[in-house]
Design goal:
This protein is α+β, with helices and mostly antiparallel strands. The protein has two domains: 179 residues, Penicillin-binding protein 2a (Domain 2), CATH 3.90.1310.10; 351 residues, 3-Layer(aba) Sandwich (Beta-lactamase). Helices cover 28% and strands 21% of the residues. The chain is built from 17 helices and 25 strands. The strands form seven sheets. Strands 3, 4, 5, 6, 11, 19 and 20 form a seven-stranded mixed beta sheet that branches. Helix 1 packs antiparallel against helix 3, helix 7 runs antiparallel to helix 15 and helix 11 packs across helix 12. It starts with a strand and ends in a 10-residue tail after the last helix. The relative contact order is 0.13.
Length: 655
């Protein structure tokens, strides 16, 4: 409340509106308001400043000499004490009990986050001036803040409003409450397992996103490291800590992007799951030699085996069958290179090279096929794979479920699922899910991920671009999967940045996915779709118990008996000027499509959704523009995005 008093004791007051609460999908409070007070003095009404200062100082925890000059300054109509800091109700009650002349309390509120760091990047924070910053608080600031009221009246010499004086009163309009799609329990599980993985593998950080593929609802969005929005000033000393990596920072996805490459080829009927190709372990293109992540040749493999073995050569071969026009049409159709319009402040677009630009070459097509030299945000990646899990329908991700009148409790706006486009046909999506189930079960690390359920998923391991090349000693390890594979109810992306003990997504991110997946199937009470082999149930229960009781800083001991040694050196070798032309047999041209009775579907234009499906965007979209070059304090993800933007020409391995 802003108060102005002139010499005639007129009162001119701005009455703040109550900021709306933010709640999870079940109504649990994530951000609310705590009643507090400003303390201000009217020096003209204080006859004995020394006496007032002596009584007030102990209550406020300050020295008498700090208060005395303020209380004695008759030139000011009023002055806030203790630097304008707010005090809680305990101190306010003590001040009221003192009944000191000329000392007043100015009721206000302070934003509070009862779950502390839970969902902090998603929520953002409110600063000392009442302005929302970052996340939900920033993007939906207008809806949450409401409109302040106004009071103009007169006071008597004692500071009381004169009842029959001229009075102008406009009541405040309180802000809207927001109901999120976030589930507090799922958010907790995601954050706990992410933190555990980051600590266990001595990683720099990471991200976990859980999405409902049928609606686009974000059930959890976790990042590590995190911060406490109640103490945002401390976090602000490291500004990049406040930015949400899940939506802002782009990374090279590695082999998880093979899902997109395969989706395109299947949908264009250029391949089937049983189409074979010869993987000789090497492919020369544009002055580069591409190799598989393990430097091995896989021989004759099917498209399903391509995903199981995570063949880089196979992915490049598939992309060349598509050709650049079709390949990038599908990249766009799945939403890469553009904001998802999730409704959070600071969303990035990722980086996708234009195949018509002068700095694009066929080596870009070859490496983009397995997720290198292309940059995506974690949200873009989970949204695209969710389209595969949703019969090919790309849904707009969203985190706000409803806007509610904070006074009446009535729902003012219901945010409904919105279809963006049909990226691939339903038949293609079903086929690819089956292939991804085989990939998850028979890939680099075999075994059941979520006992009782089939998982359709893919690992990813990508080298990190720096200074026009790649850091060969550090990776981003990831796993993305849908559960259950036949009718996915949720999609999980686990991404771990720069693990120090081992580089592979199969050994770093996949175990975290498994634990999160197991707990979600229990929490959501999903009926099991598969029989559980004898002995697995006990092991599953033990893993869950360990996850729930083991201290965060204590790493889990994982089985290393089946681990493959990390290959030394590059998986891509730059050729000299005299290198022979690439083997034309290993670089297919666009081929005759495979006959298929089911029509293919691909569109880069939005389709007309059902009448009940519409978009709600009450606040204008805002985004932060990433720096042109990484600063001295740039995060790992910022460096990845910037280096990729600088036309990286050195392809590397991906798994």
């Amino acid at each position: 409340m802003t108060v102005q008093l002139n010499a005639q004791h007129s009162l001119d007051t701005a009455v703040p509106a109550r900021r709306g609460n933010i709640r999870d999908t079940a109504g649990e409070l994530l951000a609310g308001n705590l009643a507090v007070d400003f303390i201000f003095a009217v020096p003209d009404q204080i006859r004995r400043p020394e006496e007032v200062a002596a009584k007030l100082a102990p209550v406020l925890g300050v020295d008498t000499n700090e208060l005395l000059p303020l209380l004695s300054d008759k030139t000011k109509p009023y002055v806030r004490l203790i630097g304008g800091k707010r005090v809680d109700q305990t101190i306010s009650d003590q001040i009221i009990a003192l009944a000191l002349p000329g000392i007043f309390l100015e009721p206000t509120t302070r934003r509070t986050y009862p779950e502390r760091s839970l969902g902090s990047h998603l929520l953002g924070f409110v600063d000392g001036d009442g302005n929302g910053n970052y996340g939900i608080e920033g993007e939906w600031d207008t809806a949450l803040a409401g409109l302040p009221g106004h009071l103009r009246a007169e006071r008597d010499t004692a500071g009381n409003e004169i009842g029959f004086s001229n009075r102008d009163w406009r009541p405040p309009l309180d802000g809207m409450d927001l109901i999120l799609t976030i589930d507090r329990t799922i958010q907790y599980i995601a954050e706990r397992e992410l933190e555990r993985s980051v600590i266990e593998h001595k990683a720099d950080g990471g991200t976990v996103i859980v999405m409902n593929p049928k609606t686009g609802e974000i059930l959890a969005m976790a990042n590590h490291p995190t911060f406490d929005p109640n103490r945002y000033a401390e976090a602000a000393r490291t500004p990049e800590l406040l930015t949400n990596p899940a939506i802002t920072f782009a990374y090279e996805p590695g082999s998880t992007f093979k899902v997109i490459t395969m989706a395109a080829a299947l949908n264009e009927r250029l391949v089937t799951p049983d189409t074979t190709m010869d993987d000789n372990g090497s492919l020369s293109i544009g002055g580069f030699t591409i190799k598989n992540w393990d430097f091995k040749a896989n021989g004759r493999i099917t498209m399903t085996q391509l995903l199981e073995k995570s063949s880089n050569i196979g992915a490049s071969w598939t992309a060349f069958r598509l050709g650049k026009t079709l390949f990038y049409r599908y990249v766009t159709a799945f939403g890469f290179g553009a904001q998802t319009k999730v409704g959070l402040q600071g969303e990035g677009t990722g980086i996708v090279k234009n195949p018509k630009s002068s700095d694009w070459s066929e080596s870009d097509l070859a490496t983009n096929a397995f997720g290198q030299a292309i940059a995506v945000t974690p949200l873009q990646m989970v949204t695209a794979v969710s389209a595969v899990a949703n019969g090919g329908l790309l849904m707009r991700p969203h985190v706000v479920k409803a806007l509610v009148n904070s006074v009446t409790g009535e729902t003012v706006e219901q945010v409904r699922p919105q279809i963006v486009r049909q990226a691939i046909s339903r038949e293609t999506a079903a086929t690819l899910l089956q292939m991804l189930f085989r990939s998850a079960e028979n890939g680099e690390t075999r075994g059941t991920l979520v006992p009782g359920f089939r998982v359709a998923g893919k690992t990813g391991t990508a080298s990190i671009p720096v200074n026009g090349g790649y850091d060969l000693n550090q990776t981003i390890a990831s796993f993305i999967g849908a559960v259950p594979a036949a009718d996915p109810q949720f999609v999980i992306l686990v991404k771990i940045d720069r693990p120090k003990d081992q580089p592979w997504g199969s050994l770093i991110a996949k175990p975290a996915f498994a634990i999160i997946g197991q707990e979600l199937t229990r929490y959501l009470k999903l009926p099991r779709t598969e029989a559980i082999p004898a002995g697995v149930a006990t092991a599953e229960a033990r893993s869950i118990a360990n996850a729930l009781t083991t201290p965060t800083a204590t790493p889990r001991v994982s089985d290393t008996s089946s681990r493959e040694p990390v290959p030394a050196g590059l998986a891509i070798v730059r050729n000299g000027a005299t290198q022979a032309a690439p083997d034309q047999q290993s670089i297919p041209t666009q081929s005759t499509r495979i006959p298929q009775s089911t029509p293919r579907v691909v569109s880069t234009e939005a389709i007309t959704p059902p009448a009940a499906v519409r978009e709600t965007t009450p606040v204008a979209d805002r985004q932060s523009v990433p720096p042109a070059r990484p600063s001295a304090t740039a995060t790992n993800a910022q460096i990845v995005e910037t280096a990729t933007a600088q036309a990286i020409r050195t392809p590397v391995r991906a798994r």
